Structure formats: structure tokens, C-alpha cells
Amino acid sequence: MRYRVLAALALCIVLPALANAQAAARGSVFLDANRNGVRDQGETGIADVCVSNGREVVRTDPDGRWSLPVGDDSALFVIKPTSYGVPVNADQIPQFFYLHKPHGSPPLEVPGVAPTGPLPESIDFPLHPQKEDRRFTILVFGDTQARGVREVNFVTHDVVEECIGTDAVFGVSLGDIVADDPGLFAEISQSIGRIDIPWHNVFGNHDHNRAATSNQYRDETFERFFGPSTYAFEYASVVFIALNDIFFKPQGESATLLTDDALAFVEDYLAMVPDDRLVVLMMHAPIIRCENREAMFRLIQGRPHTFSIAAHAHEQTHVFVTEEMGWHGKEPHHHFINATVSGSWWCGAIDELGIPHATMNDGAPNGYSLVTFDGNRYSIRFKAARRPADYQMNIYLPDDIEQATAGETEILVNVFAGSQRSTVEMRFGNAGSWIPLQRTVTIDPECLRMYEQSPYLEQTVLGRALGEVFGWEMDYPSKSYHMWKGVLPESPPRGTHTVTVRTTDMFGQTWTANRIVRIR
């Protein structure tokens, strides 16, 4: 046993040094006519396809051949070109990569990559033709963040089951797939895979190997299941770049930071991407929190079509990035902080199906997004978990209002996916005129009520609150940036009336909701 421990320690010391050793990897990208994943005799190479080692990007030659330098801890991958597909495994995870780790991952509490041995003589990436319409939709999940199989089941029943049969062409999880237990990657991938569309994954700060002693080895189990944590692929007229923007410092705490390799990869790749393409950056932590975000901005701010999307915040926010945040493009950059599947970390009262309400900290329900692309344009639609597609807002107004005080009675509306570019207006009665509401920044009152009445604040175990014991109590609500307010008309007629709220978002999508009130 003693010798095994010493050997493991020696391996931890040797591995970083070995990772710097350079060799030349060679291979091809080929048309996999029979889709068996192997380059058989007569299967031709494909020219001008991008292949990368995570830092450098090269194009295949006329015979589909490529060559790149690699170290002893490298990921080689093909960048799926438009109108081609890559193989997927049984859980619909794209198989677009080859991991070169001759000695495998260092010892970890959850296994990483097994030793891959010497470089193969040829690393060949299969592609097959696929139809890709100019207009298409994808599913975007943020922070499924499962703690144990019980919460994997929450993900499954709350969102996965309703996505089966979707028209989306692929999906993306924006990190925090699990909650500090990469041993659950198998279970959650098996569930999400039942949606039956290719599913891409982004690395989050809770997806890491806790026993790893350096940032280099924090994503070892992630790599085993999903491949490199920074990569790219193309679909129709859109370029998708997945970025690992989580960096673990020597002291162990995580920061939002892009490595030099990631920045070099994006720079190298974008030099090969035409300006008429839409470039979509996908990451876990919002780019506006990134310590070296300006370095990334410099790579994309000269391009006419860019968009970025993140999760992590357990809130939903549209951010329009300007010079104050380091952006110097012609127009503000649109950065969307996506809703989380886990909402507020699967907190809150249990419903009739045994699933917590999981309302996010800004008062929006837990859920996900459907992003539709049309050429280099896009639109976003929020979908609340297990709710109708048109459930897009909550209206807060008393049930009973005195006629004399109606003109002083405030109406407050939480438009879940609203932004500063949304318009929100109300109408009192069926024939009244539309009255604009004003955007405000405030706490959602229902979210605050749920927090204050949470059973975890009241019940105790050995004198400690249940939330303190289990870590499941709701956070105190945050201020929401998608709230609108106004007041009712003066002296409305007595009786029961309908108040209608109508909102139109930055993409021209219009939603309405109603609330019935009594005027006494």
C-alpha cells in the first residue's frame, strides 16, 4: 500500500513535466460513408476542415490530412463544419475529439481519463453529410446542478421529459451540470440523452475534480465524458465557441478567467471565419465577470455579428456590454445570462410531483431557453419548466381595491425574459387604452414571500435550521432587472375587472397575461 501511495505521488509530480513534452500528431478528416467511425478503404478525405489542439488551428489539405503539435496532456478535435455531422454516443454526446494522455489523469476521487498510450500513427475524425437549414432552434440549459440522483430525477421530470419530441436540432448545457460531484455525469447525461438530439456541454465551477492540485487537472472527468472544455463547431451560418472560463487558482478558489491557450485558440480560429457568420460564445460564468474579458472583446468587437451566452447567476438577465465594461465595438455586445434549470439550486416548497418550486433569485421560474437562428440573426424565448409556452410574466396586484385608492394602487410585473429593450403596457378593462409601464429594479415580492415563509427557516434539527443542515435554503432574493411598475386609473367603476399586461421584447415577440381584480 505504501508503495502504491508513493507511486501516485510521484505520478502527480511527473505529469505536469510530461505534459510539456511536444510531439507531432497527424491524421485526417474523412467522409464516413458507412458511418462506422473508421476510415475504410475508399473513404475520401475532406479538405479545408479546421482541426485544433486547443491552441492552434489548422485546415486540412486537399486530401483531408492535418498535423499539429501536442504535449502529453492534450485534446485534439475537429471543428464540425457546416452541413456535416459528427458521431454521437448512446447519450447523444458528440464524439469530435481525441484525448492524448499517455499516462492518464492523476489520481482523483472520480476517475479521469485512463492512459491512452503512445500517439496513434493517424488520428482520423469522421464526418457525415447532414442537412442544416438556415433557420434552426437549439435548447439551452443553465446549471442543472444536481446534488445526487434525487436531483438528477428533478432535472429529468421537470424539464427533460417535456423536451422529448422538440424541433431543436441540438442542445447545450452551460456548465454546473452537477454540484461538485462529477461522478453524476453518467446519470445526468443518460437522462438528457433521452431528448434524442446532439448535446454539447460547457464546463462550470461545480463540474471540477476537487482533488486536483492545479487548474490543469480540474476538468479531467469532464474530459472523459464530454471531451475538451474549450472547443468549437459550426451549424448553418452560425459559429459556436464553447469556452472554459473557470480558472482554479493555487489556493483552490475559482475565478472567471480565460487561459492564454483559450484566447489563442479563438484568435486562430476566427481568422478563418468569414465576417458574415454569427459568432456565438458559450461559457458558464458571465463574460462581464471575466478578469481578462477585454482580451476576448478585442478578438470579436470588430466583427459585425456576435452574441454570447452564460449561466451561473441563477437569474436571467440581458446585458448590453458597452465601453464601461471594456467593449469598443460599433454597437453594444449582447450578453445573455440564461435561466437555470435548477432555479435556486432546487430549493423551495415541494409540489404535487415532489419537485421544489426552485424559483430563481430574481423571481423568475426555473426553466431554459430556446434560441432560434436565421442566418446571422437570432431570437430567444424563455420556457418555464412544466408551464405553458406563453407563461412569460407574473402580475402583482391586490385582489380587492377600494375605488377611492385605485389611482394610488401600484401594479408590478415581472417579465421573466424582459430587458431594457422591452416595452410593457397595461390595459384596465376590455376597452381601455394601453398605458405604458416603467421599468424598475426591485425585489420580486412573491420571491420574498416564499423566502420568508420557507419551512427551512422555521424547522430545526438539534437547534439548527434545516437549511443550515442540508444546504437547501433559499438565498435572500436579489433585485430583478426585468420588473415594470405603474398605477391603476383613477376612480374606475365598481365591479370585477380584467387587467391585461402586454409586453413586446427586443426580438418582436409579444406576450400577454391577465389578472382579475375587484373594485369596491
Account of the 3D structure:
The protein has nine helices and 32 strands. The model is unreliable at 1-19 and 457-471 (pLDDT under 50). Among the domains are: 2-124, Immunoglobulin-like (Sandwich), CATH 2.60.40; 393-519, Sandwich (Immunoglobulin-like). The radius of gyration is 25 Å and the shape is elongated. Helix 2 (149-163) packs parallel to helix 3 (185-192) and helix 5 (260-270) runs parallel beside helix 6 (293-300). Helices cover 16% and strands 32% of the residues. The relative contact order is 0.10. The protein is of the alpha+beta class and 520 residues long. Strand 14 and strand 15 form a beta hairpin.
Class derived from helix and strand content? alpha+beta
Through-space gap between termini: 81 Å
Query: How many individual helices?
Result: 9
CATH C-level class of the domain at 393-519 is Mainly Beta
Mean pLDDT: 92
Q: CATH topology of the domain at 393-519, anyone?
A: Immunoglobulin-like
Largest sheet: 6 strands, mixed
How big is the Rg?
25 Å
Number of strands: 32
Low-confidence stretches: 1-19, 457-471
Strand content: 25-35%
CATH architecture of the domain at 393-519: Sandwich
- In percent, how helical is the residue content? 10-25%
